[in-house]
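Re: S-adenosylmethionine structure - here you go.
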Amino acid sequence: MRIGSVALIGAGPGDPGLITVRGLALLRRAEVIVYDRLVDRRLLREARRARRIFAGKASGDHALPQDEINALLVEHARRGRRVVRLKGGDPFVFGRGGEEAEALTAAGVPFEVVPGVSAAVAAPAYAGIPLTHRGVASSFAVVTGHECGKDRERVDWARLATAVDTLVVLMGVVALPRIARELLAHGRAPETPVALVRWGTTERQVVLTGRLDEIGARARAARLESPVVIVIGDVVALGARLAWFGRDARRPDVTPAAIRIGCRGPCIPVVVAGLPGVASPGGSAAGAVRIVAALRRPGPNTSADRSVRTAAARTRARAGACDRMPARFRSARA
Ligand SMILES: C[S@@+](CC[C@H](N)C(=O)[O-])C[C@H]1O[C@@H](n2cnc3c(N)ncnc32)[C@H](O)[C@@H]1O
C-alpha cells in the first residue's frame, strides 16, 4: 500500500482568515484532520469529508497524550491517507510540532511543515501593539510562562529582565505574579507597561493593561484565564493610539463588556464582576455581569459569543457617549 503523508499546519491564532494559502490548500485536500483546542472550528468546515479527530489540549486536561497523537499521525499516514495536523498559531512555537516531526521521521512518514501566524505576534498586533518600534524597542523575545522545572525548560528571568526591550510570554497567566516579581527583582522598571491580550484576534478579544508592579493583582482581580498573551515593555503604550480591532479595542485598559454597558450619559469608572470598566447610570449592571461571564467561558463559537455580539451591536451605537469617560480610562495606562 502507498504510504500517505502528514502536513503539520499552523492554523493561526484564532481569526480563521489568518491561515496561510498553503495551509488552506492542504486542509481542503485532507482525509484525516487531527486538531487542537485553540483551532477555530470554521476551518474544519473547509474539509467536510475529512475525518476529524480532536487532540486537546487545555492546561492539565489533555484529550490525547502526546505519544498517542504521534502514533495516530503515523498510523493514518501508514494507511495511505493525507493527514493534516492542525495546530493553533505556529506548529513550531510552543506547539510540540518538533516532537511530532521527530516521530514522523523515526517512522519514515513523509511530512511537511506549514508555518502559521503565532499568537505571540498576532495577539499584540490585534491590540495595536508593535513588538518593535523605532526609538522604543529594537528587540523582543518570546518565552513560556509554563515552566516544567527541568533546567532546559527554565526561563532565565534574571538575564531576560533587561536583555530585551519587549517580552512576550505565552502560557503565563497563572504564573504572572511570579514572573512580574522576577522581572522587578532583576531590574525591570516597576512602571513598565504590560498588556494581557485574551482570545486575541477573535471576537472575544479582551485587553487588560497596567504597570508591571500591579498587573499580577489586576489579572487576579479580573480572574483572567488562558489563552492570554502577555506583552511587557514600552511598546505597550502605543496600543492606546494604534489599537484598531473593534471599536472597544481603542480603550484597551477596560474590558469591552464593561465599556459597552449603558454608556449613554457621562461615564464613571466601575468594577463589574471583578473587571475594571466604565458605565453610566443608564446602564444595566445585570447585562454587564452576564456578558463578562460569557467572555470568561472557555471555547470559541458558543452561544455566549452570540450574546456578546448581540450586546455589542446593540450598544455600539451608543458608544460615542463613552468619549466623555474620564481620561485615565481612555488611555492605556492606569
Ligand atoms: C501551547 S501554546 C501554543 C502557541 C501556538 N503554537 C502559537 O504559535 O501561537 C498556547 C498559548 O498560546 C497563547 N495563545 C494562543 N492563542 C491565543 C489567542 N488567540 N489569544 C491569546 N493567547 C493565545 C496563550 O498564551 C496560550 O496559553
